[in-house]
Design goal:
single chain; alpha/beta; six-stranded parallel sheet; 7 helices; 12% strand; globular
């Protein structure tokens, strides 16, 4: 890692990255983007077929990889993923924590099991991943995935929003505790079209029209539009950036006070 005495390029070329939740949506886009930029990448999730499919795509982009499933609610699976990655790639330079779970229910009716599951995946799962992998990182970068839900009152997403607000706070504390060797930052995406959001923000729906009307770019974002931010935060060019939450939302927050 650079000490800031000379400028460094914005690239992850030559780095070894693990992307938790890396076989779908934002995580998958980041994993493939890292590979295209010259990193070796392990993209893991709970689904074996998705892990194998994504690994094949990573290899097509020139990356070395490891085919190993993991579940962020199961610490031992994360330990196994870490050990295999270290054994086969020689170490870990970058961790991207992008687990996914949501419960679209009003506060009055969301069940305790759904509430607990979302927090276990989205918040405690991020903690497990960071705790397990930081022990294998002498230096490098951890990137967590936050959400606009951490700062906006989005109906029927109380569990998700609470978890993402917790992720922001956790990221800042982790940056203080893991630094200066390991930098920890978050990306806060705006409204991004992923398999998880495809129904809620489908073309022609009122919800999508409302979002597009309040977004400076006038449209929903694509997962690939988060890759640049992830590469920056994972690169040595961000050697003086830690404890930050980087918003990538097409200007949605900038429109909050439009008349």
């Amino acid at each position: 890692m650079t000490d800031g005495s000379a400028s460094s390029p914005v690239t992850v070329e030559g780095k070894r990255a693990v992307v938790i939740g890396g076989t779908s949506g934002i995580g998958r886009a980041i994993a493939l983007g890292f590979a295209a930029d010259g990193a070796d990448v392990v993209a893991s999730s709970r689904t074996a077929s998705a892990v194998e499919e994504t690994a094949a795509e990573l290899r097509e982009r020139g990356a070395e990889t490891v085919v190993e499933t993991c579940d962020v609610t199961d610490r031992e699976s994360l330990v196994e993923l870490r050990e295999r990655t270290v054994e086969e790639l020689g170490g870990v330079d970058v961790l991207v924590a992008s687990p996914s779970a949501i419960a679209r229910e009003p506060i009055a009716s969301v069940s305790e099991s759904d509430w607990g599951h979302v927090l276990d995946v989205q918040l405690t799962g991020v903690h497990r991943a960071c705790q397990v992998f930081q022990s294998a990182m002498d230096s490098g970068s951890i990137v967590t995935i936050s959400s606009m839900g951490a700062t906006l009152a989005m109906p029927e997403t109380a569990a998700y929003s609470a978890a993402k607000g917790g992720t922001d706070s956790y990221t800042r504390v982790a940056a203080k505790e893991f630094g200066p060797e390991i930098r920890v930052n978050a990306i806060r995406p705006g409204f991004i079209l992923t398999p998880q959001t495809a129904d809620a923000y489908a073309e022609g729906t009122e919800r999508r029209r409302a979002v597009e009307a309040k977004t400076e770019t006038g449209r929903i974002g694509e997962p690939e539009e988060l890759v640049g931010a992830a590469i920056y935060l994972a690169s040595d060019a961000a050697s003086y950036t830690t404890g930050e939450v980087l918003t990538v939302d097409g200007g949605f927050a900038n429109s909050a006070f439009d008349e």
